[in-house]
TrEMBL record:
Keywords: Membrane, Transmembrane, Transmembrane helix
Official protein name in the record: Putative membrane protein
Key word Transmembrane helix present: yes
GO CC annotation terms, alphabetical: membrane
């Protein structure tokens, strides 16, 4: 196993481990928060997740260039799937921005827009990425988002807020701008892969 694979697998563990604590070890999480304080917990959490994300990106970029796809879609179907992926990514970007706008209609009505965005993003990328490392990456994100969304729906909900059309508009405009910036600049910069 080469260094890129080691980095990728370590990144998966370090990224999804903290994100899954609430799913599988909520009493331990509460105990750590009591011992370290909320800021101490969030600081450690962010550090581990940040390191994991960096390793994940670096390892993925190295491994994916060494692999062949497990299967290839016919040309017409493959092009259609790429167009569908691009279409699905736009509402995913709206939901990502809406997560930070608590009175947007997306946040008020859906409750967990970031998890829904993650499911859309992962599913969209599985449509067109068929190398083993790609299936592992996007499949892991999709599985985690499904499990976490189910768990989040079972937790007591916060008091509902009245929706704001201003924040909804901000989510749409900001999400569209993010979509364009990511496709044209951030995606090639981070992964060396054009999103177009």
């Amino acid at each position: 196993m080469d260094l890129s694979w080691i980095a990728f697998l370590a990144g998966l563990i370090l990224f999804f481990g903290p994100h899954s604590v609430r799913l599988f070890a909520e009493p331990w999480r509460q105990a750590r928060m009591a011992a370290w304080g909320e800021k101490g917990w969030k600081g450690r959490y962010s550090l581990v997740v940040g390191v994991g994300f960096a390793l994940l990106l670096w390892g993925f970029a190295g491994v994916r260039h060494e692999q062949a796809a497990l299967f290839t879609l016919p040309a017409g179907l493959g092009l259609g799937m790429r167009h569908l992926m691009a279409l699905l990514m736009l509402p995913a970007c709206w939901l990502i921005v809406a997560y930070h706008l608590p009175r947007s209609h997306f946040k008020v009505r859906l409750g967990h827009p970031m998890l829904l965005a993650t499911k859309l993003w992962a599913f969209a990328h599985l449509l067109v990425n068929h190398k083993p490392v790609e299936l592992l990456l996007f499949g892991s994100f999709l599985l985690w988002a499904v499990l976490d969304f189910r768990a989040a729906r079972r937790r007591p909900a916060a008091a509902p807020q009245s929706p704001s059309w201003l924040q909804t508009g901000m989510a749409l405009v900001g999400g569209t701008a993010f979509y364009g910036a990511f496709a044209l600049w951030l995606h090639p910069l981070w992964l060396g892969v054009s999103a177009r």
